[in-house]
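Field reference: sequence -> structure
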Amino acid sequence: MSSTLSTVLRQIGPSVMLPMLVYEIGHGAVMPVIALVALDAGASTTVAGLMLAAIGIGTILGDVPAAWLANRVGEKGAMLAAMLASAVAMSSVLVFDSVAALAVALLVLGACGATMHLARQSYVAEVVAVHHRARAMSTLGGVFRIGLFIGPFVGAAVISVWGTRSAFAVAVVASLLAAVVLAFAPVTGAAGAPAGGAHAGPVGVREMFRRNRRLFFTLGVAVASISAIRAARVAVIPLWADHIGLDATTTSLIFGIANAVDMVLFYPSGHVMDRLGRLWIAVPCMVVLGLGTLALPLTDSAVSLTAVAMVMAFGNGIGSGIVMTLGADTSPAVDRRSFLAIFRLMSDVGQSLGPVVPAAIATVATLGTGISVMGGVALLGAAGLARWVPRYSTYATRAMVRDHHRRLTEERDSVTPG
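Structure field:
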């Protein structure tokens, strides 16, 4: 576990990062056209808009079964199964021209995503040293962002030749190619093995929740607020842009600029967490997102909205990998997968609620009020993280980091001859 970061990245690059990048390119290709395909299949505008929610529902439904699957076939087997199931689901959209078939396919896609994310997080938590963990997790977050960034461009190129539904063919090819890459990639430790290793055991999800319910109801809720404000950011920026009269082209350009800011910050995030402790990212991430969200209703032009969107993207970007890192830090060595399944479930519920809260408040008050409430949620989340991260993560503060490195040095000295 004393490998340098470059060695760690070589270690998990072929088995996690490369297949995830390829897989997410396919995911990114279909995201912009889901509503359009639903409309072509005869869905109403409302139903077409709800199709994206099917992915989130599938993710929540898939979190706990993902742990069951990984405990039986190992992380590599679980990821392979998810990739192949995703390919089948996306193929069904090419074969069946119906709203029901699309909804089922998106539910399966969400469940496959849950399996992929849990398996990769469990694997990295197992094989990467704790003092390199945040950089590995934040780089995984960066790979996820890069794949989703590239995907729409690949999809657009294919759609220009074969039509809208061909974006799902991109997803099929990407899933199968990712499975081939993963199948031939070397794995380290117990990632390719079913339950029975040090990190897998007979605890189960229900018992794991009972043992750690205090953690889940404190730190878990704070982590859910991270996912909620991140998801809300994606929803409220275009809603506010429409509110102040900006067209779709301008809104897309604002998103592109903000995403560029978000995407370039993933590695510095992990570096800071590993060098100074998790709090140095967890709290600033939420404070910046909260203040940016509170400032959003104050904008009244493309320029001011772009500036605030960039601030929010900065907050989101510096938090790359924070949820996965905290999950890995707090997970037990025995049956880590069941713990992470619950941890991810809470995060995914937060992600699902994030866009709903401001929209629901807007129906009884104003959109600006709904957005401001989410800004307040982010600041409360920052306070929760400041309180509970040091209680549950042994790598939360700079003092904890120094103590960890001191123990490592003492252990190396104790086994060095002479």
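Note: Residues 1-183 form a domain with the Growth Hormone; Chain: A; fold (CATH 1.20.1250.20).
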